[in-house]
Design goal:
Distance between the termini: 34 Å
Structural class: alpha/beta
Bound molecules: S-adenosylmethionine
CATH class: Alpha Beta
Order of helices and strands: EEHHEEEHEEHHEEEHEHEH
Strand order of the largest sheet: 1-12-11-2-3-7-6-8
CATH topology: Rossmann fold
Oligomer: single chain
Number of helices: 8
Helix content: 25-40%
Strand content: 15-25%
Shape: globular
CATH superfamily: Vaccinia Virus protein VP39
Radius of gyration: 19 Å
């Protein structure tokens, strides 16, 4: 860890489905948010990853969850921020239950589902209802929660009595009472606009909370769908070592620039590939490239 108490940040230009450079059983916590299946902004990404329908999109994500399981230490936790989708298909408007499908997929991979969080974002548009005005029965309940799904890989982690890093990572009673309740309504969504379009970022407050809830100072936190790097900057700021993987070249370049501008230590576990982006602090080109310039769109 650098002398200012911050952890390191290591970046890979790569694919969440194949975390080369991240050894088996080396990550204590994953805090991530994938592209959401059936949200139109992510269609181009999924198409480039070989998926054009709901099941195919979840098959892509399942490969990422399998890789997450590989790199987690026994007892390590996976936190997945995901929302359901509403979309008309073949003339029918319906819900696509991403949270439920993700739980089933992760459980099939041997990840243990734990009680999850409903993240109810305070909204500036309380009256944004869908459907038939004031007449029953064709109006729709507003989709105003996302989910923080939680999974454990293997048995509970054990620590020596009075482990100093664990003791230093303690949270207060007030924090415990608020954080470990099932509905979070005190965290606003992050601003989404970037020069390249909507980012799909979650807010630092969400990442900070999850990192403090489920990891200990000095441990390793991974985001395999790094995006703007929210998890990484929060983890490093909390004295954890962070690893970020991002597949979109333009987004990866911005991540690398932000890491450098923030003065984050970026040790290189592998030799940077000659074809990696020039300003990458580490990394390799991904096995598959985003197609048609659509990959930077977000929800
Ligand atoms: C919902 S955004 C993540 C936002 C992030 N939590 C933040 O706060 O900025 C999903 C990200 O995953 C990236 N992505 C999509 N498919 C990927 C893959 N197979 N491997 C790694 N990253 C991928 C997208 O380019 C996008 O940046």
């Amino acid at each position: 860890m650098p002398s200012d108490g911050r952890g390191s940040v290591r970046l890979f230009w790569g694919d969440a489905r194949q975390l080369d450079g991240v050894p088996d059983r080396s990550v204590h916590l994953i805090v991530t948010s994938p592209p959401y299946p059936m949200i139109p902004q992510w269609d181009g990404v999924f198409r480039a990853l070989g998926a054009t329908d709901y099941d195919g999109m979840h098959a892509v994500l399942a490969d990422a969850w399998a890789e997450a399981k590989r790199v987690l230490v026994p007892g390590g936790l996976l936190a997945v921020v995901i929302g359901d989708a509403l979309r008309r298909l073949d003339g029918e408007f319906r819900l696509w239950p991403n949270h439920a499908t993700t739980i089933v997929a992760a459980e099939r991979l041997g990840l243990r589902p734990l009680p999850y969080v409903l993240w109810k974002k305070p909204t500036n548009r309380p009256n944004a209802f869908l459907g038939s005005g004031f007449l029953p029965p064709n109006a729709y309940v507003t989709l105003d929660c996302e989910y923080v799904l939680l999974f454990r890989s293997g048995p509970l982690r054990r620590f020596a009595a009075h482990d100093p890093a664990r003791a230093a990572s303690r949270f207060s009673r007030a924090e415990r009472d608020r954080w470990f309740s099932q509905v979070w309504d005190d965290i606003r969504g992050a601003p989404q606009r970037t020069p390249a379009g909507r980012s799909g970022a979650f807010p630092p407050a969400l990442a900070d909370r999850l990192i403090r809830m489920f990891s200990v100072t000095g441990e390793t936190v991974l985001d395999p769908f790094a995006g703007t790097g929210t998890t990484l900057w929060c983890a490093a700021g909390l004295g954890r070592d962070a690893i970020g993987v991002e597949w979109d070249e333009a987004i990866f370049r911005r991540l690398a620039r932000t890491a450098r501008a923030g003065g984050f230590l970026t040790p290189r576990p592998t030799r940077p590939d000659a074809t990696a982006p020039r300003d990458a602090p580490g990394g390799r080109p991904p096995p598959r490239r985003p197609g048609g310039g659509t990959a930077a769109r977000s929800r």
